[in-house]
Amino acid sequence: MTTSQKIKDFTDFTSICNYFGIEVNNNQLNLFKKYYEILLDWNTKINLISRASLKRTDDENDTILEKHFLDSIIFLPEIEGLINETPAVFDIGSGGGFPAIPLAIMKLNWHFILCESTTKKADFLNLLINELNLNERVKVINSRVEKINKKNEYKDKFDIVTARAVAKLDELIKYSLPLLKQRGYLLAFKARETEEEILNAKKVMENNKLDFKIFSKEINGIERKLIVLSHSGIL
User: 97 with 73: CB under 8 angstroms?
Assistant: First the structure.
C-alpha cells in the first residue's frame, strides 16, 4: 500500500491510519496527544528523538506523527494476523517508546516489557507509562538485552520481540531467540533497504531454522518494512 497524504496534525494521522485499516478511537487519540506533549517536553532534557527533525515548515510532515507514531502501528493489521489475542511482547532498546508504547495504546489486552539500558530514558518511559495509565500491563527494565535474555525468568516467555532502529538483523536474532517461545515472532521494523541485512543474517537464520517474511508499505515516498522471523513452518 502507498500513500502521499501529508501528516501535519492528528486529523491527518487518524485519516491515514484509517487508510491502512487501523481505527484510532477517541480514547486512543487522546493518549497519543498526551504522549506527544510528554515526548516534546522530555526531549528538551534528553535526546529521545532528533531535535533537528522537529523543525519544519507548515507544508512539511510532522516528524513525530509520521516517523514515530504511525511507523510504530502501520503494520498492526499484519501483526494481528500472526498472533494470539493476548501476546506477551518484549521490546528491545525502547528509547522514546517506539514501537511498544503506540502498540500498547492500540492494543489494550497486550502485555509489554520494555528493555532500555540508558537510565534517563528508562526514567522517561516509567513516567510516560504512569501518565498514560498503562502501568498495569507495561513494565520497564533498565538493563541491556544481553543480560536479560540470560535470566531464566525471561527465557522462552514471549510471543513477540520487537525492535526498531536498534541493531542489524543478525544481532537482533541472537538477542531475541532466548526470549521467544517456540512459536514466537521477531518483528524488526526497518525504514531502509533490507537486502544486505537479510543476506548477512542468512547463516544465523539457517543455523536456527528460521523463516522470514517481509511486509512493506510506502508513505510519502519512503518505504517502511517489517521483517518477521519465526521458526520454520510457522509463517
Answer: no
Cα of 133 vs its chain's centroid, Å:
19
What residues form DSSP beta bridges with 162? 91, 187
Peptide bond into 99 cis (omega under 30): yes
The pLDDT of residue 52 is 62
How distant, in Å, are the alpha carbons of 51, 73, 104, 125, 193 from that of 40? 9, 20, 19, 13, 29
- Cβ burial 139-160 (10 Å sphere, 16+ → b, else e): ebbbeebeebbeeeebeebbbb
pLDDT digits (tens, 9 = 90+) for 87-128: 999 999 999 999 999 999 999 999 999 999 999 999 999 999
Q: Tell me, what's the pLDDT at 53? A: 62
Report the relative pairing of strands 111-115 and 222-231 from DSSP bridges: unpaired
Cβ(56)–Cβ(63) below 8 Å: yes
* Domains in the chain, CATH or no CATH each: 2-67 (no CATH), 83-231 (3.40.50.150)
At residue 37, does pLDDT exceed 80? Answer: yes
- Relative to beta strand 138-141, strand 158-164 is unpaired
Residue partners of 223: CB distance under 8 A and separation at least 6: 191, 216, 217
| DSSP codes joined into one string, 34-77 | HHHHHHHHHHTTS-SS-SGGG---TTSPPHIIIIIIIHHHTTHH
How is residue 123 written as a grid cell?
526514567
Strand partners, 223: 218
Rounded distance between C-alpha atoms, residue 109 and residue 162, angstroms: 17
